[in-house]
């Protein structure tokens, strides 16, 4: 029997793997010491657990355990990386290069620094969601201190060529930071092979608990330093004070270990389901995949169903299927997704998009159900869409003078 | 955001979806909103030449659930009303009936504009002076 509701919003967050929860449990009630307490066995046991988790996390990304700074999540890690580099390397310059389709944790951090005097270049992307590497290189100046480009995009799943990006940055002696929240644990990420200097990632996107993440900070060639953004007891080599979230960190470690062991199998199982879903939904007239379909995370698909509005569409099944729309139709935010707009989508297509985020627990039965529900609802809403009627009557919607509020 | 039962009911069972022949002099059509803002409503009325009452009302809407529900409700209310009664339909009547949250007020404003646009289209076709409405300050 199909159990409802179906969860297809795994890019927002993933459920905890039961094996992760099992690993965490003793650290709430039995091994509850403060990992910074050096004077008794409770503290030693907690520290040992953190050290082990640090190894598990480091191993997933090919890092040294000493290069892992635990944080409350990827947002904090993004802030620490970008603000921390900006302050630490102020003597070298004040220029940061990023892209238009970064997560808000990166974009808003950059905007914050602009107010403090930073110069930020926001690279454009093409309709596939890819940056132009020549533009990246051309944007680098002697004042450039950081290239901050996400590993994979959360809305469309497109994967950036981090290796090529870091090769260019290295040539100019510029540090490379990447937000790998969507990539780590889903596709192989290796900080050395990829030439990454700083990397933010999070447990809850890879079947671990919420509220814990990490910043990878390179220690060798070059030795990277960031200025702490949270002051206090000097935890995490002085880069991030605050009592460590031991159960969370243990869960993060376990989640990383499981991803390392199973990501290939997960991807082999999930990608065909994603492809089947996508193929079936593209049978609908005037439906389009947003972003690259070749260079993409295995579990993501972002589709626009022209002439129906995303939020209205989701209402047709939001009690039985959990999805996310690129459209936010509220008076507070009439703006559709900035990521889709950066791909060059018109507002109409951006308003008509749905993101499907499959995961470790997605089943074929759930995909069948989703195909049926989405197809039926798109057809139903098109029957009541004046735009669909005009399209069918051969009216060019661009020739109509729409009202502008 | 949770939708009210009434919004859900109109969304799931929309009333009076459809198209009237806009070339007929008895039919008034109002098309408001814009695709780039995520809402387009087309509301049509057909006025009985003898009784001068709205004998049919139809809508098609591209938009969120609240926009669809608001237009569906408007067609129900319009049927059987005179033009004078129809112009009295205020956006806040829709908001109250459907319990629309503040972020969805614009859906009700759009419906009010659609009703008025349909009435003026009908008046224009029949050689009547256009009605001027106060701009909305919601």
From TrEMBL, chain A:
Pathway: Cofactor biosynthesis; iron-sulfur cluster biosynthesis
General function of this protein: Master enzyme that delivers sulfur to a number of partners involved in Fe-S cluster assembly, tRNA modification or cofactor biosynthesis. Catalyzes the removal of elemental sulfur atoms from cysteine to produce alanine. Functions as a sulfur delivery protein for Fe-S cluster synthesis onto IscU, an Fe-S scaffold assembly protein, as well as other S acceptor proteins.
One annotated GO biological process: [2Fe-2S] cluster assembly
EC number: 2.8.1.7
SUPFAM superfamilies named among the record's database cross-references: PLP-dependent transferases
InterPro entries, sorted: Aminotrans_V_dom, Aminotrans_V_PyrdxlP_BS, Cys_deSase_IscS, Cysteine_dSase, PyrdxlP-dep_Trfase, PyrdxlP-dep_Trfase_major, PyrdxlP-dep_Trfase_small
Keywords: 2Fe-2S, Cytoplasm, Iron, Iron-sulfur, Metal-binding, Pyridoxal phosphate, Transferase
Organism: Chitinophaga niastensis
GO cellular component, one term: L-cysteine desulfurase complex
GO molecular function term, any single one: pyridoxal phosphate binding
Binding site for [2Fe-2S] cluster: 329
Upper lineage: Bacteria, Pseudomonadati, Bacteroidota, Chitinophagia, Chitinophagales
Enzyme class: transferase
Oligomer and partners: Homodimer. Forms a heterotetramer with IscU, interacts with other sulfur acceptors.
Positions carrying N6-(pyridoxal phosphate)lysine: 205
Protein name in UniProt: Cysteine desulfurase IscS
Residues at the active site: 329 (cysteine persulfide intermediate)
Gene3D superfamilies: Aspartate Aminotransferase, domain 1, Type I PLP-dependent aspartate aminotransferase-like (Major domain)
Cofactor(s) needed: pyridoxal 5'-phosphate
Record's catalysed reaction(s): (sulfur carrier)-H + L-cysteine = (sulfur carrier)-SH + L-alanine
Location of this chain's protein in the cell: Cytoplasm
Gene this protein is translated from: iscS
Domain Aminotransferase class V: 6-369
UniProt keyword Iron present: yes
Superkingdom of origin: Bacteria
Chief site of localization: cytoplasm
Family the entry assigns: Belongs to the class-V pyridoxal-phosphate-dependent aminotransferase family. NifS/IscS subfamily.
Claim: Cytoplasm is one of the keywords in the record: yes
From TrEMBL, chain B:
Limits of the NIF system FeS cluster assembly NifU N-terminal domain: 2-126
CDD domains named among the record's database cross-references: IscU_like
One annotated GO molecular function: iron ion binding
Domain of life where this protein originates: Bacteria
Transmembrane region(s): none
GO cellular component: a single term: cytoplasm
An example Gene Ontology biological process: iron-sulfur cluster assembly
General function of this protein: A scaffold on which IscS assembles Fe-S clusters. It is likely that Fe-S cluster coordination is flexible as the role of this complex is to build and then hand off Fe-S clusters.
Family: Belongs to the NifU family.
Protein name per the record: Iron-sulfur cluster assembly scaffold protein IscU
Organism: Chitinophaga niastensis
């Amino acid at each position: 029997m199909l159990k409802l509701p179906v969860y297809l919003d795994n890019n927002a967050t993933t459920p905890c793997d039961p094996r992760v929860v099992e690993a965490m449990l003793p650290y709430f009630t039995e091994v509850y010491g403060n990992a910074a307490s050096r004077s008794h066995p409770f503290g030693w046991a907690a520290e040992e657990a953190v050290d082990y988790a640090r190894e598990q996390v480091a191993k997933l990304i090919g890092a040294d355990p000493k290069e892992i700074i635990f944080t409350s999540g990827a947002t904090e890690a993004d802030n620490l990386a970008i603000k921390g580099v900006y302050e630490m390397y102020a003597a070298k310059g004040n220029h940061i290069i990023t892209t238009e389709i970064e997560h808000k944790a990166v974009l808003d951090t950059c905007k914050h620094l602009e107010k403090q005097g930073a110069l930020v270049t926001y690279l454009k992307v093409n309709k596939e969601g890819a940056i132009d590497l020549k533009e990246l290189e051309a944007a680098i100046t002697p004042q450039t201190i950081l290239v901050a480009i996400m590993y994979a995009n959360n809305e469309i799943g497109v994967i950036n060529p981090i290796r090529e990006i870091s090769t260019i940055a290295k040539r100019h002696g510029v540090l490379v930071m990447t937000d790998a929240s969507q990539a780590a644990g889903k596709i192989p990420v290796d900080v050395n092979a990829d030439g990454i200097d700083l990397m933010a990632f999070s447990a809850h996107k890879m079947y671990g608990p919420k509220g814990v993440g990490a910043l990878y900070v390179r220690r060798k060639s070059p030795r990277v330093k960031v200025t702490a953004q949270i002051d206090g007891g000097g935890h995490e080599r002085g880069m991030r004070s605050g009592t460590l979230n031991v159960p969370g960190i243990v869960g993060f470690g376990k989640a990383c270990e499981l991803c390392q062991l199973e990501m290939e199998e997960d991807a082999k199982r999930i990608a065909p389901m994603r492809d089947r879903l996508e193929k079936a939904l593209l049978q609908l007239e005037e439906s389009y995949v947003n972003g690259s379909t070749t260079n993409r995370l295995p579990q993501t698909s972002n589709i626009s169903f022209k002439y129906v509005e995303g939020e209205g569409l989701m209402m047709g099944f939001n009690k039985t299927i959990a999805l996310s729309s690129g459209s936010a139709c509220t008076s507070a935010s009439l703006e559709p997704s900035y990521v889709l707009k950066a791909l060059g989508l018109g507002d109409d297509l951006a308003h008509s998009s749905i993101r499907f985020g499959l995961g470790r627990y997605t089943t074929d039965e759930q995909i069948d159900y989703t195909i049926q529900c989405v197809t039926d609802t798109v057809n139903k809403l098109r029957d009541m869409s004046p735009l669909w009627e005009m399209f069918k009557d051969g009216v060019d919607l661009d020739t109509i003078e729409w009202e502008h509020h | 955001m949770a939708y009210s039962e009434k919004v859900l009911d109109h969304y799931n069972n929309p009333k009076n979806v459809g198209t009237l022949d806009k070339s007929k002099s008895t039919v008034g059509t109002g098309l408001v909103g814009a695709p780039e803002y995520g809402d387009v409503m087309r509301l049509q009325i057909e006025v009985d030449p003898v009784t001068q009452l709205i004998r049919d009302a139809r809508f098609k809407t591209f938009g969120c659930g609240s926009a669809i529900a608001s237009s569906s409700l408007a067609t129900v209310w319009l049927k059987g009303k005179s033009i004078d009664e129809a112009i009295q339909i205020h956006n806040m009547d829709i908001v109250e009936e459907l319990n629309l949250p503040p972020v969805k007020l614009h859906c009700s404003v759009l419906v009010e504009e659609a009703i008025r646009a349909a009435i003026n289209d009908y008046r224009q076709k029949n050689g009547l002076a256009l009605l001027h409405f106060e701009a909305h300050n919601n």
